[in-house]
């Protein structure tokens, strides 16, 4: 019972974070994306409670490069959604990738209110990706 109380208090502490954290602490790149390289950064962005698209990619991934232009268009079309790119080749991103069970590239995961929502999209699938972003933006 004590362990459960500790877990509950830890999750409660995380829920307080959105009141004190904003995306203003992160800079967008020239393509309108936030680039994250640590789990601490990722957790902070998700904890804002704002709509977030997590884009797991790698420079060697052909499908990642193919869909990147489309993701940039979505980021421009949906300015209230934070698009967060995570290069899976970076050591700090491995922890995020493992925590979310990401095994295929590219993978897109969707978060709102500090929790994962929607259905993950993997590979070069423009329509399902756009549908999930629309749903996220409308929530």
Automatic annotation (TrEMBL):
<feature type="domain" description="Thioredoxin">
    <location>
        <begin position="22"/>
        <end position="139"/>
    </location>
</feature>
<dbReference type="InterPro" id="IPR036249">
    <property type="entry name" value="Thioredoxin-like_sf"/>
</dbReference>
<keyword id="KW-1015">Disulfide bond</keyword>
<dbReference type="Pfam" id="PF00085">
    <property type="entry name" value="Thioredoxin"/>
</dbReference>
<dbReference type="InterPro" id="IPR013766">
    <property type="entry name" value="Thioredoxin_domain"/>
</dbReference>
<protein>
    <submittedName>
        <fullName>Thioredoxin-dependent peroxide reductase</fullName>
    </submittedName>
</protein>
């Amino acid at each position: 019972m004590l362990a459960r109380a500790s877990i509950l208090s830890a999750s409660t502490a995380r829920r307080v974070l959105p009141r004190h954290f904003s995306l203003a602490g992160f800079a967008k790149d020239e393509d309108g994306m936030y680039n994250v390289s640590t789990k601490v950064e990722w957790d902070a962005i998700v904890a804002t409670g704002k709509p977030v698209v997590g884009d797991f990619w790698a420079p060697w991934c052909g499908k990642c490069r193919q869909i990147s232009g489309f993701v940039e268009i979505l980021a421009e079309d949906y300015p209230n959604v934070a698009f967060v790119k995570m290069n899976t080749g970076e050591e700090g991103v491995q922890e995020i990738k493992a925590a979310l069970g990401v095994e295929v590239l590219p993978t897109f995961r969707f978060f709102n209110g500090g929790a994962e929502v929607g259905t993950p999209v993997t590979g070069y699938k423009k329509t399902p990706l756009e549908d999930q972003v629309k749903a996220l933006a409308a929530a």
